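Standup notes
- DV: blocked on the single-chain target, sequence here:
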Amino acid sequence: MLAAVFACKVNTNPDQPVAIEMILPDSARVEVTDTFRPTGQVLNGIGEPLPDTLFWASFDTALKVVDSATGVSFGHAVGIARLQAHSGTLYSNPQNVAVIPRLDSMSYADSTRQTLDVTPTDTSTDSLSDPLRIKTIASGGNASGRRVIFSSTTYPDTAAAVTLLPRDTIGTSGDGTASVEVRLLPGVLPDSVVVTARMVKFHGDSLPGSPVTFVVRIKP
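- DV (later): unblocked, structure below
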């Protein structure tokens, strides 16, 4: 949520509206074809809410207001839209809402299996796998900057730990892909490492194709 007071005038009368508080969900982002539901309230001079009705309007076609009384809007096209609320003669400053590509699904971009050759007698081994890469399918463009959560499990679990590079949670790149590499740490080598990649939509809904599972076999 993104909440802030976006209109204000000097007046300490508790019965008079002086400000509009707008609350924009999902950090003021909405996917193409999805519904955007802002909320807000009118405040008096001491910061308390008033029962005054708000009305909403968009200045840009990227976001279409479906119901001016509730602010319910529709992500029409990728771009930045300016959304404004008003009550009587009190208007908020227009606030940007980003309409972004709709994330439809994810899958693996390359093979889900690979073999990592290491030297078992070298206990200081610090080996790195090839990238384990996922790709996303999106409507309206590439889904860049979307969060991908990677996790790893070693078999057997008594083997030395591994780490994921650059980290276990990353954002998709400009082409809608994301990848990590498995780094073997010094110690007893595992037989294999299973890496799982998961993604969800803004509202926590499961993304078709998630999770994607990779297997890295360790070959002494």
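- Follow-up: The mean pLDDT is 89.
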